[in-house]
Amino acid sequence: MLLNAKGLNYNVLNEYIRKATDDCNIVQCCGQRFIAAGMSGKSITIDGTPGNALGAYLNGATITVNANAQDAVGDTMNEGKIVVHGNIGDTAGYAMRGGKIFVKGNAGYRAGIHMKAYKEKKPVMVIGGTVGSFLGEYQAGGVIVVLGLNEKNKNIVGFFPCTGMHGGKVFIRSDCKEVKFPSQVTARPANEADKEELRVYVSEYCDLFDNEISEVLSAPFTVITPNSKTPYKQMYVAN
Amino acid sequence: MKVEGQVRIPSGCAIAAVISKDGNRISGEMITNAMKPMHDRSNGLGGGFAGYGIYPEYKDFYALHLFFDQRATRKSCEAFLKERFEIVKSEIIPTRKIPEITDEPIIWRYFVTPLTSILVHLQLDEKEFVARTVMKINTEMNGAYVFSSGKNIGTFKAVGYPEDVGVFYKLEEYEGYSWTAHGRYPTNTPGWWGGAHPFTLLDWSIVHNGEISSYDANRRFIEMFGYKCTLQTDTEVITYIMDYLIRVQGLTLSEAASVIAAPFWSTIEQKTDIEDKHKHTYLRTMFPSLLITGPFSIVLGFNGGLMALNDRLKLRSMVVGEKDDKVFIASEEAAIRTMEPNAENIWAPAGGEPVIIKVKDGAF
After folding, report:
1. Structural domain that includes position B314
2. B202/A contact by beta carbon, under 8 A
3. Domains of chain A, first to last
4. Cβ separation of A180 and B270 shorter than 8 Å?
5. Residue B18: CB partners within 8 Å, gap ≥ 6?
6. How far apart are CA A150 and CA A173, in angstroms?
7. What are the tens digits of pLDDT across the range B171-212?
8. Is A39 in contact with A18 (CB distance < 8 Å)?
9. B6 or A140: whose pLDDT is higher?
């Protein structure tokens, strides 16, 4: 179903999507928020610029964005997949607890903030370019992969990555010699088991965006996990 | 009704701006339309615009825009202005009656130049004199409020959604080489006309999305230098800080940005460029009270340019794009796409990283 979003309010647009019985192709999108919020069992393609909180609370639907997306993509999503063929704004995957987000380009600040896992659910976010500061802030679970492809003149991560991280895992395609991590996390080179796990995420990324997997995996990767020796506990009071 | 000053306002908000580096003139319609996709960032309690280069025929005169509560206030304010300025033109600012904008005050503009005899007598430079006069009217003259006071710049603001405010002030009839815009979302007080953004002093204008945690520390410091924060909204203090740092202290724009959005000490410590490290250490040590904490994204307008800046933690969104001679700044990419569907190089500046765009020399 072709949906022309020009001049449509977000609630009207979402109502059309909800009522559609087949896949939706949204054209001339310009800033409508909450697209596909909470939806399941649908495939939605977007031309134009979707507004903030794209796919918030997403519950199984698949969203493909052919250009850039704005802030808070996949906010609190539970299941499903969001694929962005451009860059993505701040707080991507905010508190997501399931599903996958793939971004061809760069992500803004606080990518994966407060991402978590729950029982069998394990969210995954793969960013092809670079990320801003506070990557994986307060991360409690799930996996974030930052590839830094095609960005030779820019740091792969900004300042203060993994601040407050207490669960989950971050992969960065770099030896991270220049990156300063907080003392509450451990950064180490990826071992064979890590690389096996990584291959699953990266191969899906490469299929989506036509990259050569062997080339992407040929660079060194750093794995960041919480440091169980110096956990965040008794920061305020001893009780 | 309580006005700002009696109650405090934290706000959400939307900002947008456009500038032509070649000094080409852009209609106010473009910036009005830019606010439409960001409608939900505002709540109808304030919208406003600043246009630069819109008064070319009066470019050597200060353009004072004023709100008055009643005719008698206007009369007494005009008498006061006549003692200090030569008024070359005074008129009602044209507006359009629309149902979306109500309860408008009396809105006038005056193109003025300070009387030389007064300047000589007071031994003040022109800008300082105009700034002091604005402060005097805004603090001492009940019912009168100067909301624009620069040369070849005009601010237009009201209570309402920004896209309606643009229609109300007939912005499509103005052309400028740069524009800034603001949609307001004050959350715990009624907005009023003076409290809408942009906040201006001389040719400085500020539109701001965010809330300043350090407001009182900043206010106490800046009020030592003759500025009066009459509105107790946080944005006002940024305008005065920028005027103080740049006009009075002679800092560059990027140095001023390094004062208000200073990097963390740990980040300064890690700097490998020794000169840069010393500069940041110096600025943080000299002006500790002017560090602005809390979330903000701002666009500072001035004669011949714009500067966009995020707080150092980047707690608000801001994107920049360009096309040919134009540069676009907005809270959301959708606003940039509305101004220029084919905008290129869309990018998000880092926290504390100023984006300074200047019109080429002689083109404004």
Report:
1. 14-256+293-358
2. no
3. 2-235 (2.160.20.60)
4. yes
5. B26, B30, B31, B34, B178, B179, B326, B327, B328, B329, B339
6. 12
7. 999 999 999 999 998 765 567 898 899 999 999 999 999 888
8. yes
9. A140
- Which of the four pLDDT bands, split at 50, 70 and 90, describes residue B6? low
A160 to chain B: closest CA residue:
B267
Chain position carrying tokens 């495939």: A43
CATH no. for residue B341? Answer: 3.60.20.10
Q: Does residue B327 lie in a domain region?
A: yes
Which among B337, B347, B351 has the least Cβ separation from residue A30? B337
Contact residues, chain A, for B337 at CB < 8 Å: 30-31, 48-49
Q: What is the mean pLDDT of chain A?
A: 94
Encoded tokens for B271: 């700097």
Residue B326 lies in a domain: yes
Q: Is the ipTM of this complex over 0.90?
A: yes
pLDDT higher than 70, residue A67: yes
User: Over pLDDT 70: what percentage of chain A?
Assistant: 96
The total domain count for chain B is 1
Give SS3 for B345.
Answer: strand
Residue B270 domain flag: no
Q: What is the pLDDT of residues B228-272, one digit of tens each?
A: 887 767 888 999 999 999 999 999 999 999 999 999 999 999 899
A195, A221 contact by CB (below 8 A): yes
Angstrom CA distances, B317 to A144, B15, B93, B158, B281, stand at 22, 10, 33, 24, 27
What is the predicted pLDDT for the residue at B1? Answer: 41
Supply the pLDDT for residue A238: 59
Nearest CB among A33, A108, A132 relative to B40 is that of A33
Enumerate the active-site residues of B: 13
- Residues 6+ positions from B102 with CB-CB distance below 8 Å: none
- In a domain, residue B285? The reply is no
Extract the tokens encoding A146.
């930052």
Q: Is B270 on the interface with A (CB under 8 A)?
A: yes
Yes or no, beta carbons of B314 and A33 under 8 Å apart: no
State both tokens at A150: 């095609």
Q: How confident is the model at residue B160 (pLDDT cuts 50, 70, 90)?
A: very high
Which residue of B264, B268, B332 is the best one to mutate when testing the A interface, meaning the one whose CB has the most A CBs within 10 A? B332
Inter-residue contact A88 to A68 (CB < 8 Å): yes
Q: At what angle do helices B234-242 and B253-260 cross, to 10 degrees?
A: 140
Contact list, B313 vs chain A (CB under 8 Å): 133-134
Distance of CA B106 to the CA centre of its chain: 21
